[in-house]
């Protein structure tokens, strides 16, 4: 059932409405805007929601920055990625007085000025550019029948004994940070030029060890089930653990000793949004009871309203930061994933 519901959220949602009904275009990640949440919002505001799902940061960037695209009114983005939208003037300030539900959030998420990258000082004073929504850590998921002891290190993804039993994420930005962690580099988000070739070589080794790569959480579960995988890098964290448990698989989740990359996703409003008041209303609605409950119960994610469950996402969390060159990382990863040799990978 959970897998079916996850698949449903990946489909564009269109309500029955006439041509004069306003359309709110939402860009989000799997499971962020469940059918019940969309239906409630449409009933309350008398608009139609057009939901588009993304599965990589690069796809998100392309859709928001595409001048020939349909344009979006509100989108979900992590705090690190938000910085390039700010730098390119692609997001607008949020009027928090239009989002009363922020008063329901946990104190650490209400205090947006304490969260790096969400607030900027402008000529109009301090302005907020995103509202925290959900968060998770990218730990390791392992099959308890094949691994009787939880893996302690990220290096388990490269362990020869698990060749053909590892599932990894198909995304260059996070994978290069993962490789930097495995290499023991001090700053995984700022790989020095002289270490780029070694990081690429590390990812080629990961590609050789992996049975497959995924982009969406439900896809990762299908791969895990079909191939009886032993180990997976959980880009979506507790969301994937929740889906695997729902499928009846005995798996564990661990934060490796090197620490786990962790993301905080927020709602932001594009600079060219057509329906700004509705975008504010959407953010307010997504902090409500239905959306917050479904994030936890259906997706296994944390929300910013309810206190986090004991021991969930515990351990050394390394919050995402902007990387040295996201476009270059994605370009290199595309060539690595395709099977290019190292000398060709490093050619600009």
**What sequence of helices (H) and strands (E) makes up the elements?**
HEHEHEHHEEEEEHHEHEHEEHHEEHH
The overall average pLDDT, rounded, is 90
User: What is the CATH domain class of the largest domain?
Assistant: Alpha Beta
- Structural class assignment: alpha/beta
Number of domains: 2
Please state roughly what percent of the residues sit in beta strands, choosing from under 5%, 5-15%, 15-25%, 25-35%, 35-45% or over 45%. 15-25%
Description of the structure:
The protein has 348 residues and is an alpha/beta fold. It folds into 2 domains: 2-134 and 265-303, D-Maltodextrin-Binding Protein, domain 2 (3-Layer(aba) Sandwich), CATH 3.40.190.10; 136-261 and 317-345, D-Maltodextrin-Binding Protein, domain 2 (3-Layer(aba) Sandwich). The chain is 36% helix and 19% strand. Strands 1, 2, 3, 6, 12, 13 and 14 form a 7-stranded mixed β-sheet that branches. α2 links the parallel β1 (23-28) and β2 (48-53). α6 (172-183) crosses α7, α6 packs across α12 and α8 crosses α9 (238-246). Mean pLDDT is 90; it is low at 1-16.
């Amino acid at each position: 059932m959970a897998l079916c519901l996850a698949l449903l959220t990946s489909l564009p949602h269109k309500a029955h409405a006439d041509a004069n009904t306003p359309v709110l275009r939402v860009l989000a990640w799997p499971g962020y805007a469940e059918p019940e949440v969309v239906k409630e919002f449409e009933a309350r505001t008398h608009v139609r929601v057009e939901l588009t799902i993304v599965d990589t940061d690069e796809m998100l960037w392309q859709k928001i920055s595409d001048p020939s695209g349909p344009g979006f009114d509100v989108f979900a983005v992590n705090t690190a990625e938000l910085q390039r939208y700010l730098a390119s003037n692609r997001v607008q300030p949020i009027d928090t007085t239009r989002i009363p539900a922020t008063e329901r959030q946990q104190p650490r998420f209400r205090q947006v000025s304490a969260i790096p990258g969400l607030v900027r000082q402008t000529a109009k004073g301090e302005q907020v550019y995103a509202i925290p929504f959900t968060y998770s850590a990218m730990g390791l998921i392992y099959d308890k029948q094949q691994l009787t002891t939880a893996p302690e290190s990220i290096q388990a993804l490269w362990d020869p004994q698990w060749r053909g039993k590892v599932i990894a994420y198909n995304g260059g930005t996070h994978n290069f940070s993962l490789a930097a962690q495995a290499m023991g580099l001090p700053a995984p988000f700022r790989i020095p030029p002289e270490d780029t070739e070694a990081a690429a070589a590390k990812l080629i080794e990961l590609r050789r060890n992996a049975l497959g790569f995924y982009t969406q959480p439900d896809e990762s579960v299908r791969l895990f089930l079909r191939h009886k995988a032993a180990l997976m890098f959980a880009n979506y964290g507790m969301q994937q653990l929740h889906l695997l448990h729902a499928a009846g698989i005995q798996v564990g989740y661990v934060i490796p000793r090197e620490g786990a990359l962790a993301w905080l996703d927020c709602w932001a409003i594009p600079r060219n949004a057509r329906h700004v008041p509705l975008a504010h209303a959407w953010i307010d609605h997504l902090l409500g009871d239905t959306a917050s409950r479904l994030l936890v119960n259906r997706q296994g994610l944390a929300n910013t309203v309810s206190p986090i469950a004991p021991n969930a996402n515990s351990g050394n969390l390394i919050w995402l930061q902007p990387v040295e060159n996201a476009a270059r990382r994605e370009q290199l990863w595309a060539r690595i994933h395709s099977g290019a040799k190292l000398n060709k990978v490093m050619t600009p």
